[in-house]
Amino acid sequence: MLKQSTLAAGLLCALFTSLASPSMAQDASSQRFNEALSPPWQNGANDDATDRGFDFTVPDADNLADFHGDPVNPKLALYVGGNYFFAMAPLVQAFEKLHPEFKGRIYWETIPPGLLMKQLKAGGTVTVGNMTWTVKPDVYLAGLKKVQQFVADGTLDAPAVPYVTNTLTIMVAKGNPEHITKLADLAKPNIKLAMPNPEFEGISRQITDALTKAGGPSLATMVYETKRKDGSTVLTHIHHRQTPLWIMQGRAEAGVTWQSEAIFQEQAGHPISHVDIPASENSTAIYGGAVVKDAAHKEAGREWLQFVRSPEGLAIFERYGFKAYAGGGKK
């Protein structure tokens, strides 16, 4: 009798579920984990270690996508603002061809610049999940104004070296199903946004400027405050990873990123596209770097800064839509 009543209850529950949400099975299927869309997106190319030992990477459960190379006794350690994580593998490979003594001995991180500075101030120690390790940087690379600020306060050594520029775009799903055509469309209540966190992602300042140009302070307030309060704007911690991932997962429908990031996603074959922002509303970032005060490998750091503004380095950046900073390629 108990078995029969339990079976009947199960059948009624299944019937109710199917009536209440006939597309539930399809929705569940569409949300299944797709390893090909999950970071890291470069098939191991962003690991400079020559001896990788046992390979244990399990997207999405065990994955350190923004930490690269062997942290034990590197000859060059780079703290790189994550906006061009995808360019680092070819940059490192080209640098090592010019300087073979660094082969397999470069370590780099690509989390947001504000978080990199927090790590630098913590003596180079970082914790991710259950793992804690320490790598002090030789070079810090971020927006030029921030680099100049940290040179001025003595955290970094002069000079601050500019090398490339970048502009903003609206990242959307392939095919642009929400028909977003301009920044003002982001204010629509039905558009779910993934936006960089102003607390530590420098891009948020440029985005706020662009939104203000496009629709005045009210547009910036709508996107970053009103929609955040109602839940239709969610802030990222690592926009260059989370924005495209959330769009591909259906958790967001758009987000403002650097143009280079959308270009990389499209080149990788992911279901991502972008909407151009006119120059009159756009904002341009200048990337710069400097050697860290008391760095262990100052000469190596200076060689890296010389390389990123060389013709070889700039050619790699240009693959993703970056432009050489005026005069940056002459040395």
UniProtKB/TrEMBL annotation:
GO molecular function, a single term: molybdate ion binding
Keyword Secreted applies: no
Presence of keyword Signal: yes
Pfam annotation, one family: SBP_bac_11
Transmembrane intervals: none
The entry's keywords: Signal
Domain of life: Bacteria
Signal sequence residues: 1-25
Entry's Gene Ontology BP terms: molybdate ion transport
Name of the protein: Extracellular solute-binding protein
Lineage: Bacteria, Pseudomonadati, Pseudomonadota, Alphaproteobacteria, Acetobacterales
